[in-house]
Design a protein that fits this description.
The protein is an alpha+beta fold. The chain has seven helices and five strands. Strands 4-3-2-1-5 form a five-stranded antiparallel beta sheet. A hairpin with a 7-residue loop joins strand 3 and strand 4. Helix 1 crosses helix 2. The longest helix has 47 residues. The relative contact order is 0.07.
Length: 224
């Protein structure tokens, strides 16, 4: 009976965990974003109506949730505005000003570099997912092709060498840049997003694959 109960408990935990994590993240967002914004947006509004902002209960939750939605739409509006030249110019000026602030500028540049590297808009940075022997022969790792090696590296190796970024687990923002002979790479069918999930999860989330999947494109084409 205890063993059966343990199995039921484990199954229930696996079912409830995604929901619990999702709810937890929503609560964190509402508390850390919605509550401060509601003090800025709705306190003056309620004061102009000679009313008090709800401090407890369902009313407070609704106000904080609405404030969170306002922030989400505001961020989306920034993304939309970035499509226009004038808005992009203002954003660039703001970034230049932030970069000149000691410490804050360093943090901003670091975070921006990480976001730019792994953003969907810059997904061309990682052209293909490859399997390679790393960190030694007989062991395999997942890497991302970034480009063909050029200049001195390509010339001194005397063969076609490809730049491969091998990320660490579970933090893919750090890793190793290695130059690998093209014939030593096995190009995989999985997408960059699926490979990221595999790496971040430590191998727990494995993308589905059929042995009859389309054969990957030629390595040279993917690396160009």
């Amino acid at each position: 009976m205890l063993k059966r109960f343990g199995n039921y408990l484990l199954t229930g935990t696996l079912i409830a965990l995604p929901i619990t994590v999702t709810v937890f993240l929503l609560v964190v967002l509402v508390r850390n974003i919605g509550t401060p914004v509601s003090q800025i947006v709705f306190v003056p509004l309620f004061a102009s109506l000679d009313a008090n902002l709800p401090e407890t209960g369902a009313g407070k939750i609704m106000i904080d949730a609405l404030s969170t939605l306002i922030v989400v739409f505001f961020i989306a509006a920034i993304g939309l505005a970035s499509k226009f030249f004038l808005a992009r110019m203002l954003i660039n000026l703001s970034e230049s000003a932030i970069n000149k602030i000691p410490v804050i500028g360093l943090v901003y540049r670091t975070v921006k570099q990480i976001v730019d590297t792994f953003s969907k808009e810059n997904k061309a940075v990682f052209q293909s997912v490859v399997l390679l022997e790393f960190p030694r022969a007989g062991l395999y790792g997942i890497g991302f092709v970034t480009s063909k090696a050029k200049g001195e590296v390509q010339s001194r190796t005397g063969e076609v060498v490809v730049n491969v970024f091998v990320p660490t687990t579970p933090n893919p923002t750090s890793g190793f840049l290695i130059m690998v002979p093209q014939e030593q790479l096995t190009y995989l069918d999985m997408s960059v997003g699926d490979a990221m999930k595999l790496i971040i999860s430590g191998g727990a989330v494995v993308p589905e694959w059929s042995p009859h999947s389309e054969v990957p494109k030629d390595a040279a084409k993917n690396a160009d």
